[in-house]
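Students often ask why inverse folding is considered easier than folding. One informal answer: many sequences map to the same fold, so there is more than one right answer. In these notes we will look at a single instance of the problem. The structure comes first.
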């Protein structure tokens, strides 16, 4: 009971694909209705709409060019596909410059005024807007072709308009090109005259300066150099070569001078390797031979002997000759260095003097040559202007129809293109299906009633004891072999297992609102208990709107109210029914106030007495949210069971009913889902379909054996509980 009074937060609901499919199946009537209505409307509108024809003229558009390309005009073939240019062309075609000509040529203000404005001429802007709505421009991909499509209710008018627009755009391009060429020629001519006047002034100034400076070469743009460029290059090469030779000789001379100052004998050995000299080589050979001879003489003779003195004198003479020769060679090398230096200085001075002379001439004659160059530049521009004027004059005389060529002339359409009946109907079907499904899900979203067992258990935090299919009758009339009895047998089984004590045998069946199947559930559940061998009593405690007596076809003169008012005994107010083991107590006549009666001590005494007489007592009650009778009964009986009709009342209403049961202290055992459409909601199929298949596939012997076993079980229950029989 504590769990029911303080339920925790309901777990989060997660939608599955089957949940969406369930919504579609349940709401299929809405989906089909919306689908059919939309399809019918789309079809009707499609056939009602007036038929429209289309005609297309195609033009080839070039950026520039003519039949013969001008001297300076680029060839149109140089321009490839340009999306920006094509879009710009679209805007021009739909501009006032082009469409106004079409309107005036075809007198559309009056023609369309008669058709669409009750005979009154339209304004040009109105006609233009109407015409724009009838035009469709599309480029042919990767080409310079543009398709001009015009829609009209008159196929001949559509073709005429398409051709007129193509021709108007072509004329616009031609006129624009001519105006541009004329304006360009005028500008070029003005520039040409201005440049001619400037050339005359500059030519006079150049002639004056040439006479003043005595310049003979009147075509030269700069002074003639004193030293020609070829000669200057030659001198430059000689200077480089002379510098290299001079540097080499100077280094050699300075090295030999350094050796001569330190060791002159070493110099005699070095010079032959640098400057081969036959005389020096011969003297060196004689010196070497004399020195060997002197050495031999000194061995054989003393130094005072004549032979030694003679050879010694010869050696000294040779050394003197060698030294003189070396000094001469060294002096000759110095002379060569000085001569090379003088030659290099001479060339350098000549080049410097030539450059100085040229620089002086440049500065002196600069005004003349500046004026001469400026005159040459103006002459070049002047000649270009003349060529341009000539080319533009020729271009202006060349036909330029190739800028816009009408490649395909529009022809009247053979069949209407609008409305596209197939497309409209298909779109209507698709839109209708989408609208139907969307509306179904929207209604499902707004519907807060109980839909599934998961909804109930998640919201109410209470078990579902049974699921009752749709269109269930009364088992009292259908008999024990009713195909619907199995659903109530399941409810009976779950109810028995939900009892914590076998002494709890008084049960009240309540509901939040009227029409949820509370009375039907009460009777059929009692019937199933009675068929199982239990002694059962059904009490019609709905004192305000009693209905059970009509089902059992008995009078309502005696019943519950008679006993509670102490007018009759229990035995007098209880009536038998056609169902074995099932008795019935009608409500009796309705007193002025039923609340006091149901809450009286006499009611409690009656319940206690009936608990001794019957195995199970079922009380039918009014809606718990309508009157207080059901709340009083819930507080007095052992068990309370709530019936919820599938998709009838909002969940907050049914939740409030459960809360009221718990608030008055009722022992709430569970819920019953009633009136489930098994054909639409396959989620409930296993509650009834399985029972139906199982029940009807059993043989007669199996059914008889099961009935005997149920009767035997009921007898055992009666013997164990010690239930007293009715008087």
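Output (designed amino acids):
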């Amino acid at each position: 009971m504590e769990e029911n009074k303080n339920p925790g937060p309901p777990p989060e609901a997660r939608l599955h694909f089957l949940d969406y499919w369930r919504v579609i199946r349940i709401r299929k009537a809405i989906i089909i209705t919306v689908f059919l209505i939309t399809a019918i409307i789309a079809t009707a509108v499609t056939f009602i709409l007036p038929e429209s024809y289309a005609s297309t003229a195609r033009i080839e558009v070039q950026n520039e060019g003519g039949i013969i390309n001008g001297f300076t005009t680029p060839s149109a073939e140089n321009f490839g596909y340009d999306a920006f240019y094509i879009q710009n062309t679209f805007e021009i075609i739909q501009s006032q410059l082009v469409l106004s000509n079409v309107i005036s040529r075809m007198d559309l203000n009056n023609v369309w005024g008669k058709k669409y404005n009750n005979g009154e001429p339209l304004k040009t802007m109105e006609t233009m807007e109407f015409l724009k709505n009838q035009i469709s421009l599309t480029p042919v991909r990767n080409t310079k072709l543009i398709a001009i499509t015009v829609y009209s209710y008159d196929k001949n008018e559509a073709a005429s308009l398409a051709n007129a627009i193509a021709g108007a755009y072509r004329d616009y391009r031609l006129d624009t090109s001519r105006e541009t060429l004329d304006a360009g020629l005028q500008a070029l001519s003005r520039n040409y005259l201005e440049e001619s006047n400037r050339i005359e002034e500059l030519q006079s100034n150049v002639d004056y300066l040439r006479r003043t400076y005595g310049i003979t070469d009147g075509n030269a743009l700069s002074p003639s150099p004193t030293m020609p460029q070829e000669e200057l290059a030659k001198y430059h090469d000689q200077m480089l070569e002379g510098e290299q030779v001079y540097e080499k000789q100077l280094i050699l001379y300075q090295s030999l001078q350094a050796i001569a100052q330190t060791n002159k004998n070493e110099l005699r050995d070095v010079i032959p390797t640098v400057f081969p000299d036959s005389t020096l080589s011969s003297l060196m050979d004689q010196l070497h031979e004399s020195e060997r001879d002197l050495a031999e003489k000194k061995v054989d003779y003393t130094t005072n002997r004549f032979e030694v003195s003679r050879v010694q004198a010869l050696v000294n003479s040779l050394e003197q000759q060698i030294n003189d020769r070396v000094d001469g060679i060294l002096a000759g090398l110095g002379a060569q260095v000085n001569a090379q230096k003088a030659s290099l200085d001479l060339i350098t001075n000549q080049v410097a003097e030539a450059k100085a002379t040229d620089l002086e001439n440049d500065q002196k004659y600069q005004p003349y040559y500046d004026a001469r160059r400026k005159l040459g530049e103006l002459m070049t521009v002047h000649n270009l202007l003349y060529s341009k004027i000539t080319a533009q004059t020729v271009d202006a005389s060349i036909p330029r129809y190739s800028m816009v060529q009408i490649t395909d002339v529009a022809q009247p359409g053979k069949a209407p293109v609008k409305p596209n009946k197939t497309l409209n109907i298909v779109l209507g079907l698709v839109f209708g299906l989408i609208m139907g499904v969307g509306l179904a899900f929207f209604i499902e979203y707004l519907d807060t009633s109980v839909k599934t067992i998961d909804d109930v258990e998640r919201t109410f935090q209470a078990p579902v004891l049974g699921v009752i299919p749709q269109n269930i009758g009364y088992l009292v009339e259908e008999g024990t072999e009713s195909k619907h009895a199995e659903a109530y047998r399941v409810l009976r089984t779950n109810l028995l297992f939900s009892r914590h004590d076998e002494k709890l045998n008084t049960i009240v069946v309540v509901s939040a609102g009227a029409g949820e199947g509370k009375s039907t559930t009460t009777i059929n559940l009692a019937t199933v208990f009675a068929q199982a061998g239990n002694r059962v009593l059904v009490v019609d405690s709905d004192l305000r709107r009693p209905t059970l007596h009509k089902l059992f076809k008995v009078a309502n003169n005696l019943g519950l109210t008679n006993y509670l008012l102490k007018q009759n005994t229990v035995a007098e107010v209880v009536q038998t029914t056609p169902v074995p083991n099932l008795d019935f107590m009608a409500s009796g006549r309705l007193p002025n106030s039923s609340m006091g009666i149901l809450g009286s001590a006499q009611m409690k005494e009656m319940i206690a007495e009936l608990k001794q007489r019957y195995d199970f007592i079922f009380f039918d009650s009014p809606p718990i949210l309508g009157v207080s009778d059901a709340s009083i009964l819930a507080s007095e009986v052992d068990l309370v069971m709530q019936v919820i009709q599938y998709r009838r009342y909002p969940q907050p209403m049914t939740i409030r009913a459960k809360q009221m049961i718990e608030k008055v202290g009722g022992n709430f055992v569970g819920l019953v889902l009633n009136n489930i459409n098994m054909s639409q909601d396959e989620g409930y199929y296993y509650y009834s379909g399985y029972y139906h298949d199982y029940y009807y596939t059993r043989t007669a012997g199996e059914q008889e054996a099961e009935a005997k076993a149920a009767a035997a079980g009921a007898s055992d229950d009666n013997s164990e509980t010690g239930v007293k029989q009715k008087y």
